Amino acid sequence: MNTQQGSELFSAIVTAPFGAMGIRTEDERVRELVYLPSHYEEKAPQNAAAEQAARQVLRYFADADFRFDLPLADAGSEFQRRVWNAICAIPRGSVRTYGQVAKLLDSHPRAVGQACGANWFPLVIPCHRVTASGGLGGFASSDDEHGFTLTVKRWLLRHEGALPIDVPWQQQSIFP
């Protein structure tokens, strides 16, 4: 039995190329997906929704073109959901800046960034595809250039084929 501190919060934990992915479920729906560091051990799915999410997360890690089809819990404000819908329209292998998404929604880049940070369903809602105009930007409410979450963002962008040659911030060596 996995007695690791914090693992009880999750209905499943799957190993990821960058560490692990925690899956929380509630009422047969996915409530939250969480990027976790590698010291989290796998945890077998505790229910059908967790099993479905774990299977789909692993398929995405194997194939960046995989499309999620999960029962998601209701989350976010009306504005956040508008931002998340716009993010879902960004094709795999592409990025948009916070400013580009804000212009599309007649909003402000900071508000778009805050909505990205409030995303309960990363991977399903691919907020990693949104960057700053002059660099990688933040990710999962962090902007520590060498921190865990920006390492995850770099991995996801590489996995999806958003190579340095395709992004405006290629000269900044964000892909070490």
From TrEMBL:
Keyword set, alphabetical order: DNA damage, Methyltransferase, Transferase
The protein's Enzyme Commission number: 2.1.1.63
Domain Methylated-DNA-[protein]-cysteine S-methyltransferase DNA binding: 78-162
Any one Gene Ontology BP term: methylation
Pfam family, one: DNA_binding_1
Single GO molecular function: methylated-DNA-[protein]-cysteine S-methyltransferase activity
Methyltransferase as UniProt keyword: yes
InterPro entries: MethylDNA_cys_MeTrfase_DNA-bd, MethylDNA_cys_MeTrfase_DNAb, MGMT_N_sf, WH-like_DNA-bd_sf
PANTHER family: METHYLATED-DNA--PROTEIN-CYSTEINE METHYLTRANSFERASE
Name of this chain's protein: Methylated-DNA--[protein]-cysteine S-methyltransferase
